Amino acid sequence: MIRVTVNGVTYVREVEPRLLLVDFLRHDLGLTGTHVGCEQGVCGACTIILNGDSVRACLCFAVQTDGSEIETVESLGTVDNLNPLQKAFQEYHALQCGFCTPGMLMTGVDLLRKYPLATDAEIREGLSGNLCRCTGYEHVVRAIRSVVEAKSGS
Amino acid sequence: MKPPAFEYLAAETLEQAVAALADDEAKVLAGGQSLVPMLNFRLLAPSLLVDITRIPGLDLIEEDGDGGLRIGALTRHHVLETSALVRDRFPVLNAAMKHVAHLAIRNRGTIGGSLCHGDPAAELPGLVLLLNAQLKTTRRNIAAVDFFASALCTILADDEILTEIRLPALAPRTGWGFEEFARRSGDFALAAVGATVSLAGDNVAEARIAVIGAHETPLRMTSAEALLTDRSSIAAAAEAARDGVSPNDDLHGSADYRRHLVGILTRRALTAAWQRADAL
Description:
The complex is a heterodimer of chains A (154) and B (280). With 154 residues, chain A is of the alpha+beta class. Chain A has helices at residues 21-28, 84-91, 101-114, 120-127, 138-152; strands at 2-6, 9-13, 47-50, 53-56, 69-71.
């Protein structure tokens, strides 16, 4: 039995030890915003925030997260009320097919919390663990840059 | 794929974890950033995973005497990356951490896990060799140079757990260099080299070179180190390092290319180390 708080809601569930966190979020909790890509920690599509840190939900078992706080892409905003990072992704056209976007957004959340992101090189370095086959990354970098600049008031 | 079925134990003490590992199909689970991909690929099928991350007291970074550090085996990579103690006492480790995978992996992966996984292309195994670390386990102390047996193999027994990494102080006037070449930021190194140079007057008191990604284990290049007498000997040492490794061919790079990289990276790392030592 595990007890986890996901996006502010507490869930108590019985889980098989081998259940990956990403499958727990999608199948058991119905939070399908988090995507399953490579299942080997390479693509970044399943990135979520666990106790304040971005992690790969495919490289973690649900059973390990007993007592944890989890944030997924559903915590950011809604279609009618996007959060600033989501708005920036829309404005800068930082997605095409959208498959990688939940992971890009949650990685962006952690990068914006942890690093000054003073240069585009820093943003690119920070995004290097998230694969996108559509955008060529340029627009994702611009979207995150715009949020950094809005935060610093420049 | 999805991992095969296994039992799970969240150990509360080291004694409990060691006892559970008596089951010879059991594996230790720490950060899981190498183990879980191997499970998802079904390269491993343990009967039991012993999660040691809830055992208290194994994730501390503490001063050890004048200039040394004791690092708990469960210290996560991002904590090492941002620790002021690490940056002040072992700046080469701080510099190398930036090359370790990506933030989401660094948030989860642990130094003990990386060492016990023993990937010869990973940074931390090479760094503990470079820094002459002592590795403390539930049974004994092991010098880093004795720890790595072959690719992905260490000398740890099945029911032995790495608990602490002790880094002895660097000599005064020690400069450092760390150079890595990878195809993409965060990828495993095609080759990387860490070096320290300790000066006494104008002479070299000690020089160390550790090579990553070009051999079945990380390697200290002692024969190359012995060639370093003054700054003009860097080129000869770099050539000796290049000739002293036996890398594999794979789709990421040929053995010749990796050897070439070892020579270039050794020269650059030693040059940087020398400049930093000179400035002290």
